[in-house]
Design brief:
Elements (H helix, E strand, L loop, with lengths): L7 H7 L1 H25 L5 E7 L4 E7 L5 H7 E2 L2 E6 L5 E6 L2 E2 L3 H6 L13
Antiparallel strand pairs: 1-2, 3-6, 4-5
Length: 122
Amino acid sequence: MAVVYPKTNRLVARHKDVQDELERVTFEIAVRAEEILVQHRADGHSQIEVEEGRIDKYVVLSDERRQKAALSIEYGRQAYTVKRQDRYGNEFEVEIPAMDGLYVLATASGLPKKRKGKVKLG
């Protein structure tokens, strides 16, 4: 019977060859994600970034405006209405149309696309 020591996983994860492969794969996913995002971006503020943890690396769809645009880009959104004011103080409503998700990160990484909404069980 084999014995696995607790620090073995960390040692393997930090090995130079493993880190080199992780960097290569992360770079490939980031390039594919950027290609997908650029195809659909008209004047967007979202971008693809690579974040580094202590061991892992992450490809992130970043949203500088902090309006959950990255979430809407990845998974889509339902139509909704927002109230606005013009410069004279007159209030009006603007309908934001529904949008299908682009699944930028899921597609770039080869992961299955997960749909939002209710899941039927049984």
